[in-house]
Design goal:
The complex is a heterodimer of chains A (296) and B (290).
Chain A lengths: L1 H38 L8 H6 L3 E2 L7 E2 L2 H32 L2 H15 L3 H20 L7 H25 L3 H9 L4 H12 L1 H17 L2 H6 L17 H9 L7 H35 L1
Antiparallel strand pairs in A: 1-2
Helix pairs in contact in A: 1-12, 3-6, 3-9, 4-6, 5-6, 6-9, 7-8, 9-12, 11-12
Chain B lengths: L1 H22 L1 E5 L1 H17 L5 E6 L1 H9 L5 E4 L5 H9 L4 E10 L1 E5 L6 E3 H9 L16 E5 L4 H11 L8 E3 L2 H10 L3 E5 L11 E3 L1 E3 L12 H5 L6 E9 L4 H11 L1 H9 L7 H11 L1
Parallel strand pairs in B: 1-2, 1-3, 6-11, 7-8, 7-9
Antiparallel strand pairs in B: 3-12, 4-12, 5-9, 5-10
Helix pairs in contact in B: 3-4
The chains are: A mainly alpha (296), B alpha/beta (290).
């Protein structure tokens, strides 16, 4: 009797967790389906060629609507790559410091601080971009103003850092102690051990952390909307104003008429964004899995 | 036991919140109008205890979209409703009515260290269309012009495009997130030019110059800071700042609008740097309020 009751309970609990697992997958599939369904009507009036290869995005143009996402794609890429160039070296350095060099007490203080960094609202960072980083960039490069891709890169680097640091640190910590001991026993210095043994051994984990950080940077909206100037022109460098895909959607979706071509086109931009982040996350997952297999 | 009662009370309060939110008059829209209407709502609520008005921004386009979708009671707008939007409203069973609450002299601003003090309408159009790109062609120094403007959900963005430029903005224009941001940007940018509602230049300080604008090259250069220039229509880019409601305003919505149009409300308009209504507008408003 008691056994039977236990069996039913077991079954219920099992079902409950299965349901939750499936629900998450369903949500993802649902979002994807919704995006596709709402994006497809855009191509009734916009040619695929214009959408993917034209640099002009101006859906409320005075003489004709223009829907080309190249300048938006380039903007997003520029800001993201800039962010990674800044965040990756600092992130790996900080992770190596936390895992190998810092004492127990420093680590106890520093780790929560890194986590707090992840909790800063993006609006606050955007504000910092306007009042602090913008003027500094303007002064450093002799520009009339600092609302450009570089500003966005710096802010996104700050947002990507916690992800990069904490996952890289986990990866470094999971390198077997024997590697380190062997290296030190062979007479390598601490620096040589970290740079030539531990980091290469944890490379796939570090790589995955960078890609997750990248996913974070690509999807960020408010910060870039506030700090990058949002000029729709094709950017030529980090010191030009840029208008990312996320900022474009955020600015324009609020006033667009439901069911218009412009409305569908914004969802098409969203779909492209979704596919990019999906691919980046999938790749990082594959890399991460590889490193876990190697370790075991 | 006491704990349970407190929890229950808190829960009851939480559930009763939506009820009070329903009694609240929701105003949404233009960033140009937000400071003015917020100030009016504060005075109004002070004088009428128990009445609540909440004012949020988002841009004229956002406000008009909200009134069409029934998500606000009053939409602030610095441009007129478009025929496309009227069609959408009618399809949703919304009958948009307009009242004008203030007059704005849209101000073109440059940095104080820029020697340029006046421009013609034609020149402003050329600058924002990207046809003139250096200050030296306008009597200034040899510097590339840096354009600051608003984002497409802004009524001011549309107003400039339709009324002043008759064309598209140069794609190099930086799209700023509000009037205040444009003022701040032009303050520190010696080669910048921006456009903002006159209410935003009143207290902007000595770092900016508000340009005088003429209709034609030989015409009179009028300033948006001179009441006489704006009220007589000599300043070429003055515009009504309006509110849209659905149908004839009633109840709390009506009482707030009546306050805005009252001599006391119009005094706040002047205090905020905008211009009070002339007789024609008052008459038009009266028709809409019937």
């Amino acid at each position: 009797m008691a056994d039977k009751k236990g069996d039913i309970k077991e079954l219920l609990v099992k079902g409950f967790f299965t349901l939750n697992g499936i629900a998450v997958v369903l949500v993802l599939v649902g979002i994807f389906t919704l995006l596709v369904i709402t994006a497809v009507p855009a191509f009734k009036e916009i040619s695929m060629k214009e959408f993917l290869f034209s640099p002009d995005w101006n859906p409320t143009g005075y003489d004709g609507e223009k829907y080309g996402i190249v300048s938006l794609l380039v903007s997003t890429a520029l800001v993201t790559v800039g962010a990674l160039v800044i965040a990756v070296p600092i992130g790996i350095g900080a992770a190596a410091y936390l895992s190998d060099i810092a004492g127990e007490r420093v680590r106890e203080i520093a780790k929560p601080i890194v986590e707090i960094l992840a909790g800063i609202p993006s609006v606050v960072l955007g504000f910092l971009g306007i009042v602090l980083i913008g003027p500094v960039i303007a002064k450093l490069f002799g520009l009339p103003n600092g609302l450009n891709a570089l500003n966005g890169s710096v802010l996104l680097a700050i947002m990507a850092l916690p992800t990069i640091i904490s996952i890289s640190e986990d990866a470094l910590n999971s390198v077997p102690m024997s590697f380190q001991q062997a290296s030190l026993a062979l007479g390598a210095t601490k620096w040589q051990t970290i740079a030539l043994v531990k980091i290469p051994a944890a490379l796939s984990g570090i790589l995955a952390s960078c890609m997750l950080g990248m996913g974070r940077a690509i999807g960020e909206t408010m910060t870039v909307l506030m700090a990058t100037g949002c000029a729709a022109a094709m950017p030529h460098g980090l010191l030009d104003s840029v208008r990312t895909m996320t900022a474009t959607i955020a600015i324009e979706l609020g006033e667009v008429a439901y069911g218009s071509t412009h409305y569908y086109a914004l969802f098409a931009v969203g779909l492209v964004l979704f596919l990019i982040t999906f691919i980046v996350n999938m790749l990082s997952d594959m890399v991460l899995r590889k490193y876990q297999n190697v370790e075991r | 036991m006491g704990k349970i009662i407190v929890t229950a009370l808190m829960a009851a309060m939480a559930f009763s919140m939506p009820a009070s939110a329903r009694d609240m008059v929701q105003v949404k829209g233009s960033d140009t109008l937000i400071n003015l209407v917020q100030r009016m709502s504060e005075v109004y609520m002070e004088e009428n205890p128990g009445k609540y008005v909440s004012v949020t921004g988002g841009g004229s386009g956002t406000g008009i979209a909200a009134i069409i979708n029934g998500r606000c009671d009053i939409a602030n707008a610095s441009r007129l409703i478009k025929s496309k939007e009227v069609d959408l409203a009618v399809a949703q069973g919304v009958d948009p009515r307009m009242v004008t609450i203030a007059i704005d002299g849209l101000s073109i601003i440059v940095n104080r260290s820029n020697p340029v003090e006046k421009l013609t309408m034609d020149q402003v159009g050329k600058i924002y269309r990207g046809e003139v790109t250096n200050w030296k062609d306008l009597g200034g120094e040899d510097r590339k012009i840096n354009l600051y403007g608003r984002q497409p959900n802004s009524g001011t963005y549309d107003f400039m495009k339709e009324v002043v430029m008759n064309g598209d903005y140069a794609s190099s224009m930086k799209q700023m997130n509000g009037n205040a941001q444009i003022v701040e940007a032009v303050k520190v940018d010696v080669s910048g030019i921006g456009y903002v509602g006159v209410g935003y230049v009143k207290d902007a300080g000595p770092e900016i110059t508000v340009l005088k604008i003429a209709r034609t090259a030989g015409g009179y250069f009028a300033s948006p800071l001179v009441t006489e220039d704006v009220k007589s229509g000599k300043y070429p880019i003055s515009r009504p700042l309006v509110q849209y409601v659905s149908g004839t305003p009633k109840g709390d919505i009506r009482s707030f609008i009546e306050f805005e149009l009252s001599p006391e409300g119009q005094k706040i308009v002047e205090e905020e740097g905008f211009f009070s209504l002339s007789a024609e507008y008052v008459e038009y408003n009266n028709k809409q309020m019937l």
